[in-house]
């Protein structure tokens, strides 16, 4: 099993959640806790946008997808959105197949691009 790591940082008053490893039923509670904190920060700073960097994520299951979808839905109630950074085709495919990328989620190739879109 790969090590799971998640951190919350802030750049230009925008919360950035960086994840490494696999997002699954075992790691989702930790991810959800950090995403909740990021949503509070986004609301506090009036940006209402979270960047979720998945560049170092090798796998995401339906539980992980549900965690991201829940966060996106919560943000959408106040006009917020999630900018996802993802370069792995098989992880991108999960978002495309789910239809989430047509909601308030945008996918970017680089964190700098996601940040400049804020």
Assembly status: single chain
Give the CATH architecture: 2-Layer Sandwich
Shape: globular
In terms of DSSP E residues, the strand content is: 25-35%
Fourth-level CATH superfamily: STAS domain
Order of strands across the widest beta sheet?
Answer: 1-2-3-4-5
List unreliable stretches of 5+ residues.
none
C-alpha end-to-end distance: 34 Å
- Element order: H for helix, E for strand: EEHEHEHEH
- Overall helicity: 40-55%
What is the helix tally?
4
Average per-residue pLDDT, rounded, comes to 90
Quick one: biggest sheet? 5 strands, mixed
Radius of gyration: 13 Å
Number of β-strand runs: 5
| Number of self-contained structural domains | 1
Structural class: alpha/beta
Description:
The chain is of the alpha/beta class and 118 residues long. The protein has one domain (5-116): Transcription Regulator spoIIAA. Helix content is 41%, strand content 32%. The protein has helices at residues 28-44, 62-76, 89-98, 111-116; strands at 5-11, 14-23, 49-60, 81-85, 105-108. A five-stranded mixed sheet has the order 1-2-3-4-5. The model has no long low-confidence stretch (mean pLDDT 90).
Summarize this structure briefly.
The chain is α/β, with parallel strands linked by helices and 118 residues long.
